[in-house]
């Protein structure tokens, strides 16, 4: 299957299967969010659901993996992403997030992926408002129900445990550290965990862990009842850190202006200049594309789709982003104009 056929396949499956699921799930979850009594938390919950439209377009690259059950994968990945986006929105708006509170609410991701046997707990125990009227627990249970239906979850379980542990650690450090200690804390943490990834910097390791795409990839692959451990290991070893890193670098570039004065961390701030940022994303693209076996043809298509989704966003033509967008299109290689023509009509908001 050629790259262009893959691109057309993505567009058709996204438009006919995935996007309708997005709209249906947002409508369903909005009903739960609207019942939250706290005005601020209710606003955060609804804001998170609105953000999910674009984020889930990005996550939809799972469509391209062979033998993925697309409706089931869309359902479980959306349910998982809804929790991540809700927690991120809460933490981004909170002026003070204690380590105890962060560990507690992010433990919901373990419950949602059925890797913790404890009964669900009151996640907002340490939050000033004390409660979101059970909204997070609802999200967790919705996701957990989908995870329990995955035919190959036992095969991906250990990988999810490993990545989720790193992902939660990073979120706790990211949101509990003040602006003066955050950089040092993240650097020290990544020093411990990134020793096997000597060709990327500490910040690039952090941004690769910070991307939920690796976890979403694992959940998607688990919809394939014939998934083997050998196949999973091959895909996983090639996916991380490159694809997740590309996604997070693109997100950072798109949100550069928005995060200048917010509490949200933007890892691309650690690149000393625009040229190095551009050079490094090109390097990530080359590393993700360097192997020539079949799955890497899928990766090449995934990378190009990610590039198109980000560089066609309205923010991509604001200020210096316009220049970077042109560089990113060139980085995608030959045929990007055709990709752009095919994908520009998909709904991302």
Automatic annotation (TrEMBL):
InterPro entries: YtpB-like. This is DUF2600 family protein.
């Amino acid at each position: 299957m050629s790259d262009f056929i893959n691109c057309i396949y993505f567009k058709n499956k996204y438009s006919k299967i995935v996007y309708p699921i997005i709209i249906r799930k947002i409508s369903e979850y909005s009903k739960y969010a609207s019942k939250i009594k706290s005005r601020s938390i209710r606003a955060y919950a609804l804001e998170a659901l609105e953000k999910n439209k674009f984020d889930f377009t990005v996550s939809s690259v799972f469509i391209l993996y062979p033998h993925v059950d697309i409706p089931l994968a869309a359902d479980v990945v959306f349910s998982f992403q809804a929790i991540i986006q809700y927690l991120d929105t809460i933490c981004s708006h909170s002026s003070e997030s204690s380590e105890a509170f962060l560990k507690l609410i992010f433990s919901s991701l373990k419950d949602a992926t059925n890797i913790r046997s404890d009964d669900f707990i009151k996640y907002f125990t340490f939050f000033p408002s004390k409660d979101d009227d059970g909204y997070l627990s609802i999200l967790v249970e919705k996701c957990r129900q989908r995870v329990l239906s995955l035919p190959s979850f036992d095969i991906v379980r250990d990988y999810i445990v490993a990545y989720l542990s790193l992902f939660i650690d990073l979120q706790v450090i990211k949101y509990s550290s003040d602006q003066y200690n955050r950089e040092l804390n993240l650097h020290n943490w990544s020093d411990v965990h990134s020793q096997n990834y000597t060709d990327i910097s500490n910040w690039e390791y952090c941004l690769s862990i910070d991307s939920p795409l690796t976890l979403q990839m694992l959940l998607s692959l688990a919809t394939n009842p014939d998934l083997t451990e050998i196949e999973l290991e091959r895909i996983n070893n090639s996916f991380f850190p490159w694809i997740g890193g590309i996604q997070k670098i693109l997100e950072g570039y798109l949100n550069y202006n928005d995060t200048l004065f917010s509490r949200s961390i933007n890892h691309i701030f650690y690149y000393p200049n625009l040229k190095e940022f551009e050079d490094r994303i090109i390097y990530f693209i080359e590393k993700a594309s360097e192997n020539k076996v079949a799955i890497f043809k899928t990766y090449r298509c995934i990378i190009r789709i990610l590039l198109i989704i980000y560089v066609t966003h309205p923010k991509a033509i604001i200020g210096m982003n316009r220049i970077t967008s042109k560089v990113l299109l060139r980085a995608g290689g030959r045929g990007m104009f055709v990709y752009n023509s095919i994908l520009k009509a998909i709904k991302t908001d």
